[in-house]
Amino acid sequence: MKKRKNNIVLINPWIYDFAAFDLWVKPLGLLYIDALLRRNGYETHLIDCLDRYHPELLKLQGRRRPKRKRYGTGPFHKEVIEKPEVYRNIKRRYGRYGITEEIFQEELRALESPDVILVTSGMTYWYPGPFRVIRLVRECFPGTPIILGGIYATLCPDHAKEHSGADTIVVGEGEQEALRLVDELTGQRSSYWPDPENLDSYPWPDYTSGHRLEWMPLLTSRGCPYRCSYCASHKLYRAFRQRHPQNVFEEIEYAYRTMKVRNFVFYDDALLVRAESHIHPLLDEVTNRNMSCTFHTPNGLSPRDIDEVLADKLFCAGFKTVRLSFETGDIERHKGMNSQGTAEELAFAIDCLECAGYQTKELEVYVLVGLPGQSFEEMMERIVFVAKCGAKIRLALYSPIPGTMDWEKGVQLFDFDAQADPLLHNNTLLPFFPSGNPSLEQLQGLVKILNSAIDQGVNVLRPSTLSKTFLNALEKWD
Question: What mean pLDDT is predicted for residues 411-436?
Fold first, then answer.
């Protein structure tokens, strides 16, 4: 059989970690590259190791469809594997999440020999996933060039060059460089090159390679103007840019009408920035067309951008998973973090959302814990403040991220090795969490109790007859 010309394989690797959950996870960057390659005449094949709907995986599990929670989320298939040596003192089981290696190898054997293989990467401490993919690909296609990109490759390029086994490492936004490299390796000359300054010039991500599309990710902007001290968005994206809201709506409408998608998930780091010209017109279009779909914001919204009008539009448009970001209530830390909202702005945003029709049990607030120099008292004050506002608390465990201000602070104050194995970036380790008692586990237990009370419509910290009676009784027995 004659080999196809310009055959490109794209691979989304497994997650190697102590825990992983499919909270609307898709390799969106890889899907953008896939669409751009197809636009230029390449034949592509996507292997998604995190595809919970893979027919062979379902067959192995004896299921017709994967375990499913609300709006398409659910657990990944897990295989327990040996822990890396640096994790030897962690008393938790380490695992590979996604399809089995056997299924992956069957996918490789079914391919015609590709011209180029593109592998993406997620969190820095997930690098064993792409490393294993690259090793297995090398065994199957020893002469094929392998290009590695994604988050890990961008934040730890030297480590990736030395240890990954890939031929080339792509740093930052990958579409232009991936297309240039693929052209160079295949001898083809692509005719369509999007303008990096104009996000509307990029083809929409291609979802035709997947087995089922129960929900769809949306990226209406790239980058973030806030430059928070703990975040590496400025390292991953060249600048903050936004798509035109009409272009975003047309993508939503196409998926809604043609692919029957009803759940849409925003991947933006700064969805509400320049709200009047960006999110407002998009919400107006969705509401005016009476589209019965739901929207979700797992990355967290900036409280400072939410007012009464925007809260009402979010509710009317069908935003169901509404998560807010609250990094700190400490004034001095807030100044140093360039964070997305003060305590007062958070309280105002929650009040606006409640007035719009949201129940407090529907609102969750990310509370970041384990920052360099952060005391246990500071963490507790933030937890109490969020609970008093009436929203549910979702603890976000700090992970050291190279290239951020908090990374530099941790290196200087705690003698954290800047050249250490990226496995040590894992937030399970929490290297800057205060030692001694109370412990993280106790903090998590308290949060669970507070959230359970809110689920039952009870907030013991908010002024009410019940809370006053409770606090009076507590004081009596103190």
Answer: 87
